[in-house]
TrEMBL record:
Chief subcellular location: membrane
PANTHER family according to UniProt: PURINE PERMEASE C1399.01C-RELATED
Keyword list, A-Z: Membrane, Transmembrane, Transmembrane helix, Transport
Subcellular location: Membrane
Residue intervals passing through the bilayer: 38-66, 78-97, 103-124, 136-158, 164-182, 189-219, 239-258, 323-345, 351-372, 384-406, 412-433
Plastid is among the record's keywords: no
Protein name: ABC transporter permease
Residue span of region Disordered: 440-464
């Protein structure tokens, strides 16, 4: 057995066919396993730039680089892949609703600042331990926030799908059939298959313009200066818009940090290793946060650990992190092909809408599951009030005529999105209202982690 095996164990006996060191299998097989992981994350990862207007090439590049950085900071022990986070789509939509090229860098600035919260939480975990810090962010707060993220995005999915409902329904049907009745890799990549099949149907129906694909070169640089945050700083810098983007997007990090902790628990259970104890949440959060900051600064989406790849781990029982790093290298290679990026950008709105309907619904479903699995007691008035205000403020403001609360501060106008207001109010109410110390859902310390592995069907998608 490899000396690189993570310790301590979760307490469950290792599966006899589990592979913690894939090197004896040979480079070709390790390459195939790496490709498998890349395709597992592929559909969701490239869909985020397609929905937001960000660069597909930059997205792939920083998904790969972010994964490698994460592995370096996690001491190469955690077999996790970092792909595009869907949780921040609401933030991009609030700042650049139509994917405006001149506004997206401001949204990326907000996401980069949100990544700083990962570093703060990482330091708090290092100093105080997970249980003490997470009591300020129980499921009664994070669950409704995640629910609102999906519901706020729902209208854009309907708008896109309405351009051709037949093709949108094809995308939905393929995803549902593959996810429920699929076997092997088909069950692991339903989103990718939904995109491919509905894209092919759209092309056959004449809904796709391939002229940009034909004109795009095969090889090119994945990052353009005008798409980066660095391009903002100059005479045309809009201070008010920058502050608005930061205040609007930063609260989204609270939900994604909670998801990160859940992902680490899922990977630990799958691999029979306690990664929360070693290398520790402070290291994995640091890696996720820095990857998000760097990606955002260069015009790519925020990163997050991917549940699809956890599903691949459970399916293959190949737990060697080296395989994940090979997948990261493949993503980096694809990022240098503008023709591939143009192929993704040519995806018609109806395909995007059909896939988005499922994905956005999944985001809200994860929030509901967070409440259910943590047994949030709605017989308590405090829990009802916190949830009610988060939902009403987040959704009510988002769908109001103004779409935000506008606050003039000196000569600067700051717009607070519904999600930002709902998140701030929920967090404050959880602290102020009686019963805070009894809030459920604070994660247990590593030594209290369960001794049984998590079944495959309990691993949720983490592209939120």
């Amino acid at each position: 057995m490899s000396k690189d095996r993570p310790v301590p164990t979760m307490g469950a006996k290792d599966s006899p066919d589990a592979v913690y060191d894939a090197r004896p299998l040979g480079v070709p097989k390790m390459g195939v396993f790496g490709l498998q992981h890349m395709f597992a994350m592929f559909g969701a990862t490239v869909l985020v730039p397609a929905l937001t207007g960000l660069s597909v090439s930059a997205t792939l590049l920083f998904a790969g680089l972010g994964t490698l950085l994460f592995h370096f900071l996690a001491k190469g022990k955690v077999p996790a892949f970092l792909g595009s986070s869907f949780a921040f789509i609401a933030g991009y939509a609030a700042i650049a609703p139509n994917g405006e090229a001149d506004l997206l860098p401001y949204a990326c600035l907000g996401v980069a600042c949100a990544g700083l919260l990962y570093l703060v939480l990482s330091a708090l975990f290092r100093v105080f331990g997970a249980a003490r810090v997470m009591r300020f962010f129980p499921p009664v707060v994070t669950g409704p926030i995640v629910i609102c993220i999906g519901l706020i995005l729902a209208s854009s999915a309907i708008t896109n799908a309405s351009s051709n409902w037949l093709i949108a329904v094809v995308a939905i049907a393929v995803i549902v059939v593959c996810n429920i009745w699929g076997k092997g890799m088909v069950k692991i990549v339903p989103i990718l298959l939904g995109v491919i099949v509905s894209y092919a149907v759209a092309a056959f129906a004449g809904e796709v313009d391939f002229s940009t694909v034909a004109a795009a070169p095969w090889v090119g640089l994945p990052v353009a200066w005008d798409n980066t945050v660095f391009s903002l700083f100059g005479e045309s810098f809009d201070t008010g818009l920058a502050i608005t983007a930061i205040i609007t997007i930063m609260p989204l990090a609270f939900a994604t940090m909670i998801e990160h902790i859940g992902d680490m628990s899922a990977i630990s259970s799958t691999c029979n290793r306690n990664y929360i104890a070693e290398p520790g949440l402070h290291r994995t959060l640091l890696g996720d946060g820095l990857a998000t900051i760097i990606a955002s600064l260069f015009g790519a989406p925020a990163n997050t650990t991917y549940g699809e790849n956890t599903g691949v781990l459970a399916l293959t029982k190949v737990f060697d992190p080296r395989v994940i790093r090979i997948a990261a290298l493949f993503a980096i290679v694809f990022s240098f092909s503008p023709k591939f990026a143009a192929l993704v950008a040519a995806m018609p709105a109806c395909v995007v809408g059909g896939v988005s309907l499922v994905l956005y619904g999944m985001i809200s479903a994860v929030g509901i599951r967070n409440l259910v699995e943590n047994h949030v007691d709605f017989m308590k008035s405090r829990n009802v009030l916190i949830t009610a205000l988060i939902l009403v403020l987040s959704l009510g403001i988002a769908y109001s005529a103004a779409g935000a609360i506008v606050v003039p501060v000196g000569g600067i106008t700051i717009s607070l999105s519904g999600l930002a207001v709902g998140s701030i109010v929920g967090i404050l109410m959880n602290v102020v209202l009686p019963g805070h110390e009894e809030a459920v859902g604070a994660p247990r310390e590593p030594e209290e982690m369960p001794d049984v592995p998590m079944p495959l069907e309990d691993i949720r998608p983490a592209n939120g």
